[in-house]
Amino acid sequence: AAAAAAGAAGTAAFITHSTLVQAQAPSSAPPPRPLLEQISTPPPFSPDAERFDTRTFGGRALNFMNMLCDLRTLLLPASECERYKAILAEAAAHPGSKERPSDAELWHAKKVVEAMSHPDTGEVIFAPFRFTGYAPVNLSIAIGMISAAKGTLLATAFWQWFNQSYNVCINHANRPGGGGGLESIDSGMLASYFAATASAMSLGLAGQVLGARIKGGGLAKLVPYTVPFLSVAVGGVVNLVCTRHLELSEGILVETIGGEPLGHSIAAAKIALFECSTARVLWAGAILTAAPLLAKPIAKRVPPALAIPFDLGFTFVVILFAIPLCLAVYPQREVVEASLLEPRFATHPKTGAPLEQLAFSKGL
Prior knowledge:
Elements: H1 2-17, H2 35-40, H3 57-68, H4 78-93, H5 103-116, H6 134-148, H7 153-173, H8 187-213, H9 217-243, H10 247-250, E1 252-255, E2 261-265, H11 266-299, H12 307-327, E3 333-337, E4 357-361
Antiparallel strand pairs: 1-2, 3-4
Helix pairs in contact: 1-8, 1-9, 1-11, 3-12, 4-5, 6-7, 6-12, 7-8, 7-9, 8-9, 9-11, 11-12
């Protein structure tokens, strides 16, 4: 209950006071490569870098699509992940070897390892709980929610519960540190799960009841496209804030552009939570509102026998690409003006030199 209350207060705080911030690259950095060049010509391989230039929206979108849209990694056995780990380890141990794989092969190996395993423990994650499994699983969730909005209250409650339960499994499997089974589930995680589920189910059921009282007209037709979106969006934000509510009281680590740690900032935490929440709202809208609204007029031109396959395929494509594009709106490592954070970050704590830009990792 305390975590839920803190999450609700935090939600109001960062939505009210946070400022939408766009990342700014240091002036000394080289300009980003053209997107077509990034696609056709991989850069020299580095285990600590990204395949695409993440300083721009296009580069970030390509980076997430490269990771999340390659569903072949869901079908690979754990032995393949270990094989690719061995390839990367061998290349790191013998960087000048003539038998070293090409940069493209090493980037592919890195992608497969990151898609299949936990970044901290290296353990292979159960396929449906990987981020690459998000699109296939959410296809059934999206269709279930849209259909339930036209059906019974029990169906709506079930799909809202199923969605939040799946989200908590994703969060648990990919949480920082990893490791542990059911015994590692703490009170904070349970509080975020119950708060998100309760808010999503309440909004979903209330919206459906309200929609049923609207007799005909445009408002009634909008219920299947708005109620699932609102309940999922609010539930996702509540889940996020409850899970990370300590950041609103303790802050997150802020660094110089060069990576030197300067301390924890609550203002940076508000920006990070705002940006992560925005991404969740955007992809919920794309999947549950934009996709069915766009598909409806196109489906009228499709032969009746192909209507259902078209609807499924169209929804799946939207889910597959909407999430990477929404995640790409903000960079993973955010760079902001020092004036947006607490006054103590205006100058370097050791040298006293003025600081213009600071960086922090916003998380996902």
